[in-house]
Amino acid sequence: MEKLDGYSGPIKRLLEENNVRAGDVIRVVTVDREYVGTVIPRYEYASQDFLTLKLSNGYNIGIKFDRILSISLVEKHSPPSFKSTPPTFKGENLPHAVIVSTGGTIASRVDYRTGGVRPALTASDLLSVVPELAEIARVDAEVLFSIYSENMTPSHWTILSKKLHDYISRGYEGVVVTHGTDTMGYTAAALSFALKNTPVPIILVGSQRSSDRPSSDASLNLISAMRASIEAPFSGVYVLMHGWVSDERMAIHLGTKVRKLHTSRRDAFKSVNTKPAALYENGKIHVLLDNLPKRRPPSDFEIFPNFDEKVALIKFYPNMDPEIFMHLHSRGYRGFILEGFGLGHVNSALIPVLRKLIRDGVFVFMTSQCIFGRVRLTVYDTGRDLLEAGVIPLEDMLPETAFVKLSWCLGNFGEDKVLDIMKANIANEYSSRTVLEEGECFGN
User: Fold this and answer.
1) Which residues belong to the active site?
2) Cβ neighbours of residue 216 under 8 Å, at least 6 residues apart?
3) Which residue in 10, 130, 355, 373 is a FRET match for 334, CA 20 to 30 A apart?
4) The domain that contains 192 carries what CATH number?
């Protein structure tokens, strides 16, 4: 880190004249008050008219240059850094659990060069900054990936599936996967299909705000995920995140029925067309869905870890060019998941193209762009024309889940089995009926 990273102009000269570097504690006298705080680097693209201080209460403030009367050095320090210490577990009788880290905000810290966050914490660091984990389980940790979740690919799902299968087969009683929130729903669906008859719950968890922010949800999310992985009576793959903007309730969602519905709120994840599987509240797990698979011995635990990358998820829009489909087909794409309008409709001019693709052996399935509800192609003429062309409706399956499922089907099974498997309810990806629950939408 540069000694005054991100500073330039008059503020940089003022700091240099007083022998101040990033990390030093200084006193700043302004036209109306006095501040004491630590100089932290500026964001590279932020306004250069401000000095940034971290106060003793943990919050950052910006002080405009033309309001500064004087600065003085209080104490020299090195630039802020992170140091981890090994956790001390509370007893050999605690359950044995594992955290597999793939990156994301929950394993990130602020990058003051850009103002964003960057992967910086290892899995062991996570244990160090959340010492409460040592009271819950004997936790092992591994950094499998250290990437932003937008960089996850089907090949990553395969590697992660195999790693989790190995850990569970070795007898771990709880499994937590830390993951970036942007594509966590895709990975949860991938694991739901790849790992069959999972004996223990696999809990994917992320954070909307990095661990060094005062409003971070990283610590509580990770603690709750670990407790759920150890204490939940069910098995399978789930996503755990805040169930509300405050901290009193965590929601545990089915891995195939969850979507990120807000860019920044801590309760960004919601179960779609179903209730959450369970809530974690006041230190207890409250199961909300019936017929969840129970914890079980690993005797029938199987893995189908392969995913075909020649599958596309396409959202329809007005005046869409049919050549998009033909281009992808020429590139070897074997299947399409369509996000149609409403009940599952597209511009009628596209139907002949879809018919030709299906005749050429391409799999074409229909989902809806709507958040809630289900596809029904029998209501209007366009839907019936799509059925006649061979497009298969997927009821209320989420488009993301359908995309992952088709990739998984083509990666593990012969083409003669794909239609039957896509229509089967394997991991609760279908709901038998759609009921809008009170409080499902934001603002309620």
Assistant:
1) 105, 181-182, 260
2) 207, 209, 210
3) 373
4) 3.40.50.1170
Contact status, residue 307 vs residue 154, Cβ threshold 8 Å: yes
Distance CA 97, CA 90 (A): 14
Rounded-to-integer distance, Cα 233 and Cα 293, Å: 9
Asked whether residue 390 falls in the same domain as residue 419, the answer is yes
Q: Do 99 and 128 touch, CB atoms closer than 8 A?
A: no
Name the token pair of 198: 């999972």
Which residues touch 163 (CB under 8 Å, ≥6 apart)? 100, 142, 144
The pLDDT of residue 114 is 43
Same structural domain, 222 and 191: yes
232-254: b (≥16 Cβ within 10 Å) or e: bebbbbbbbbbbeeeeebbbbbb
Residue of 51, 49, 226 lying closest to 131 (CA atoms):
226
CATH number of the domain to which 377 belongs: 3.40.50.40
* Segments of the chain scoring below 70 in pLDDT: 1-3, 43-47, 58, 78-90, 104-129, 209-216, 434-444
Assess whether 104 and 228 both reside in one domain.
yes
Predicted local distance difference test score (pLDDT) of residue 266 = 86
| Positive or negative torsion for Cα 216, 152, 397, 428 | negative
Q: What is the pLDDT of residues 158-215, one digit of tens each?
A: 999 999 999 999 999 999 999 999 999 999 999 999 999 999 999 999 887 655 554 5
Largest CA distance in the chain: 78
Question: Parallel, antiparallel, or unpaired for β 284-287 and 278-281?
Answer: antiparallel
Query: What is the per-residue pLDDT for 359?
Result: 97
pLDDT score of 442: 46
Is 169 part of a structural domain of the chain? yes
pLDDT of residue 115: 46
Number of domains in the chain: 3
Q: Residue type at 231?
A: E
